[in-house]
């Protein structure tokens, strides 16, 4: 852990790809995280050969999901999912604590191509909804927050989520870029999340919107966050960040945070690695197939006598023997 005092804090110059870096700025009552995704997001995007515009959107969604999912402690899963009427009609990103991420998307190639490689996220997604789901295992209640998508970016949707569901003043920045590294083109994504968490009663914040789908019993805090000098300063500083700084491999997360907050004193904590890893397995695929009816399972058998399933996330293909699929299935009466 690095010291929060500017004179003794020497930010690392080394790259920090595929890592989340928590930080705090006590003088401004700020807590936050910075994320850099390198090989992990490049693997996800190259595997499916997404068009550039769709790739940028998926990269933003992955960075946002990791920023939010990294708040989970030892176990649990955070999922971001969109369902919309735009050319990219579905996004799904899973973060499984403490470090696994996977992502996939469904899109209509011709409309995506017509919008161009730098199409706005709002035009790609269109209208629909974004759901953020927290599942911390069977011993904890599952929570889901839903935000209507009506032409806003993922950053704007994240801000709306925090206003209506978490009641915490939050600022999110996301960036994606395709850069040349070692003579090859590589995708990179990054993000910055800053939250205003004052402890004194006279600096507690007021929600911009009604509590919406806040969990039952959630305390609605009151105060004057939007006009608080500390939060105003923090927002002004974060809004100076350029997209290229968020993804530049020559600018570490520590260096970026130092640039922003060194006059106030920023403290960084141990970084958490992030890896691209799918949750699929033959056991899970068998369980999924066995959840279908007997007639549906029979329809899955191909002409060569096998059942073939391809994972939408990692593209791994599972070729199964129908006899193995039917083994140990308890058939309900009348099925």
**Beta strand %:** 25-35%
String of helices and strands: EEHHEEEHHEEHEEHHHEEEHHEEH
CATH level 4 superfamily of the largest domain: Hsp33 domain
Low-pLDDT segments = 1-8, 201-224
Q: What's the CATH class label of the largest domain?
A: Alpha Beta
Number of helices: 11
Query: Separation of termini?
Result: 59 Å
**CATH-level-2 architecture of the largest domain:** 3-Layer(bab) Sandwich
Number of strands: 14
Radius of gyration: 22 Å
Largest beta-sheet characterization:
6 strands, antiparallel
Amount of helix: 25-40%
Structural category is: alpha+beta
Look at the structure and give the mean pLDDT.
Answer: 85
Folded structure, characterized:
- With 335 residues, the chain is of the alpha+beta class.
- The chain folds into two domains: 17-276, 3-Layer(bab) Sandwich (Hsp33 domain); 282-326, HSP33 redox switch-like (CBS domain Like, Alpha-Beta Complex).
- It is 29% helix and 29% strand.
- The chain has eleven helices and 14 strands.
- The longest helix is centred in the N-terminal third of the chain and has 18 residues, at 52-69.
- The radius of gyration is 22 Å and the shape is globular.
